[in-house]
Model the fold of this input.
Amino acid sequence: MINKLMREIQKKNAPIVVGLDPTMKFIPESVKKNAFSVYGETLQGAGEAIWQFNKEIVDAIYELVPAVKPQIAMYEQFGIEGLIAYKKTVDYCKSKGLVVIGDIKRGDIGSTSTAYAVGHLGKVQVGSESYAPFDEDFATVNPYLGTDGVKPFIDVCKEEKKGIFVLVKTSNPSSGEFQDRQIADANNRPLYEIVGEKVAEWGADCMGESYSYVGAVVGATYPEMGKILRQIMPKSLILVPGYGAQGGKGADLVHFFNADGLGAIVNSSRGIIAAYQNEKYKEKYTEANFADAAREAVLDMQKDIASALGTINV
Amino acid sequence: MINKLMREIQKKNAPIVVGLDPTMKFIPESVKKNAFSVYGETLQGAGEAIWQFNKEIVDAIYELVPAVKPQIAMYEQFGIEGLIAYKKTVDYCKSKGLVVIGDIKRGDIGSTSTAYAVGHLGKVQVGSESYAPFDEDFATVNPYLGTDGVKPFIDVCKEEKKGIFVLVKTSNPSSGEFQDRQIADANNRPLYEIVGEKVAEWGADCMGESYSYVGAVVGATYPEMGKILRQIMPKSLILVPGYGAQGGKGADLVHFFNADGLGAIVNSSRGIIAAYQNEKYKEKYTEANFADAAREAVLDMQKDIASALGTINV
Done:
């Protein structure tokens, strides 16, 4: 799957992943109204609104980008009905040829991590049958519990030829609270570098053609740290959140890429899916053509990144 | 909810939480056969088997213990159908007066953590209606993303009078990989102590009668660290996994308690729910009375802990 993802990034000339994080306030009133008219203002109604919204967004952007990243929390908040919308979204995106990165940030120990791994990336056994319940292509994983928590995901990835992105340095303001702590050893490095080294170590064991099955999450909001982490994990694809709404700029992104112009995939969520609400696109687009606004926002993001990388050939 | 939990621990004289982590291999063949005869060897069949198994266990133990801790991964691995069984289990346990600790180990940033928090502990808004989708009483939370990731849970806890347990020092063998790293500051302490201090700080802001809404997870397998963490977080209830099957012994547990004999709640999962498969209970119990074996295992655990605490009055 990492090979497919790298190929699609090159083919579409877009190291971009669209975050499908549909909160109620991003969904146009008309879409909600339609859903509520059938299911009422219920969890099922919310799930239906999310699904219809996603479908239109995906139809508008699937030719432009290699991947989408649904944030499961935004679905899980609506309980079972929200998770049904999540699963429909995953399946629909795959049917459109998109690589699906499940932003699930799971992480536990031993058999529990195995359960998450088979549920999201692998197959679970029921008697003599086996099923792939959520079946994303990639998943994000929290490393706090150490190798015990990550290894079960890697085992499933090897079997299924899928991948993970391990949280190394997250994009949020307080990510430094623990991640930036200086570790008292010979090199006195921050914790995120130690985690980065582990990612490189875990990844060396499961290489695709040019990049590993084990990638990393490093926030666009910390470009200088990205530069160092890029060197520590040369074979890991870096998933970069925090571009756009969170403050990360195109020019900051250059540090996350390798000399080959690859090595990073930049996420934008509300900057794309809620573009029609953005000052920049507000005049041209309304609720009625929210998906077209998303499409234009993807094209603008593509130009911004290409310009930063000095390869303006879009 | 922390007040209810503390009251129930004292009333039942049992600082015990039963981990409802039903893997297929713990569920008796007869239970699976019944479920599969109706739904086939499907995800729905697995969900039904889990639910029927849980129900019998809960009926056998609810009078003895204050709380249960369903591990959501064990349900999520069966997809939507597994999560329906999770939700049924949560509701049933609450109807029996049990405090439900959702072992979800979620953690993200800002609005995403808020989504997890409302989905599991709070209420989500759909138009003019609001719903409590999963509605556990407590949830476990991963701290790697810092205050941004934890604060949204605390906000919801204040509103709903519910609580969280933050992962501080986990019970698994490789938990030390990152958690034990010495931090280069004036005091040169390990990371888990720094996280423990944050837990105390977060918790000070939302106190129940004697303990805080913000508890901590510290593994029974690390009693010496438990001793220090007990002092760092005097007002946090410590959820202690790793007793029994993972190697933690009754005698080790004394360090996790305060002088008042309170302050910790010890989890056992397979040691209780799969007791009928255990050498110790195998002669007396079979698949047919697996729930009775679970009951006896709870009573034995209660004696083991009471004896360690020097308060043999069960």
